[in-house]
Write a structure and sequence with these properties.
By secondary structure, the chain is α/β, with parallel strands linked by helices. The protein has 2 domains: 172 residues, Rossmann fold (3-Layer(aba) Sandwich), CATH 3.40.50; 92 residues, 2-Layer Sandwich (Pantoate--beta-alanine Ligase, Chain: A,domain 2). Helix content is 39%, strand content 19%. It is built from 11 helices and 9 strands. The protein has a 6-stranded parallel beta sheet, sandwiched between helices. It has a 3-stranded antiparallel beta sheet with strand order 7-8-9. Strand 5, helix 8 and strand 6 form a beta-alpha-beta unit. Helix 7 packs across helix 8 and helix 10 runs antiparallel to helix 11. It is globular and about 55 Å long. The relative contact order is 0.13. The model has no long low-confidence stretch (mean pLDDT 96). The protein binds pantoate. The site of pantoate (PAF) has 10 residues, from strand 2 and helix 7.
């Protein structure tokens, strides 16, 4: 089985064209590298439902704010490529920044109110950067399916909205979050946590589950979310950007649960490391 790494749009298109011509379903797994089991679950989902799997590794500067962790974001492409090869991935697209944002690049995709809430409110321009690069990757590779983790649940919904609004013919597939045994969602940023911070980190998922279970009984979501944020600080989190219960599609805040799907989401800091997570509000009892 052959595995290749390409770095230009032309080479990407040339590699994929014969698969399209042969009618083989192509799955795309966009990543920023530093692969962990969460990424491998995306690859696994693509390998099950597509004949060909293309993984992209690109640490996209456009989705990092000026004070964020672009410089320290882990990069280990050689190691990642070996993992992808061993998993039976067909193609790795790992372009340099100069290939993605060529001189004169000026187009940006904004996704409206869905992208302005929660993550968007705390990371201005983040989802514009995500939507723009994902749209480019979808148009370059023209996959039948593209796979995104539910850990970045708002990103998943933003990508779905963008692809639908731009009539990009792709099935955007969400893949369940992969967790450590203590509940911590896998993330490339977990490796920044000190042992003490790592010990506190599972409180994020624990608290979200407690909030999700409490609000499903019809109690006031805002009050429960505020209690959850206080509990996270009491557990040792240094700062909470948000803890909210929202409509899972529009991301509008919910007062009392009257409709589903709904989601509880949170973002908080342990030292300099920002963690996010989310859980579904369970069905009515
Ligand atoms: O989730 C990520 O790793 C990134 O946001 C993505 C989707 C690869 C776009 O850069």
């Amino acid at each position: 089985m052959s595995f290749d790494t390409v770095r230009t749009v032309d080479a990407l298109r040339a590699s994929i064209a014969p698969w399209h011509e042969a009618g083989q379903a192509v799955g795309l797994v966009p990543t920023m590298g530093a692969l962990h089991d969460g990424h491998l679950a995306l690859v696994g989902a693509s390998r099950i439902s597509c004949v060909r799997t293309v993984v992209t590794i690109f640490v996209n500067p456009a989705q990092f704010g000026p004070s964020e962790d672009l410089v320290r974001y882990p990069r280990r492409e050689a190691e990642d490529a070996e993992i992808l090869r061993s998993l039976g991935v067909d193609l790795l697209y790992a372009p340099p920044v100069s290939e993605v944002y060529r001189p004169g690049f000026a187009t940006r995709i904004t996704v409206g109110s869905l992208a302005d809430r929660l993550e968007g409110a705390h990371r201005p321009d983040h989802f514009t950067g995500v939507a723009t690069v994902v749209a480019k990757l979808l148009l370059q590779a023209r996959p039948q399916r593209a796979f995104f983790g539910e850990k970045d649940f708002q990103q998943l919904q933003v990508v779905r909205r963008m692809a639908a609004d731009l009539d990009i013919p792709v099935d955007v597939v969400g893949v369940e979050t992969v967790r450590e045994p203590d509940g911590l969602a896998l993330s490339s940023r977990n490796e920044f946590l000190s042992p003490a911070e790592r010990a506190v980190a599972p409180a994020l998922n624990r608290t979200l589950c407690a909030v999700a279970n409490a609000v499903s009984d019809g109690v006031d979501c805002q009050a429960e979310a505020a209690r959850g944020a206080e509990a996270l600080i009491a557990s040792g989190f240094d700062k909470i950007d948000y803890l909210a219960v929202v409509d899972a599609q529009s991301f509008e805040p919910i007062g009392k649960i009257a409709r589903r799907p709904a989601r509880a989401l949170a973002a908080g800091f342990l030292g300099k490391t920002r963690l996010i997570d989310n859980v579904a509000i369970p069905p009515a009892a």
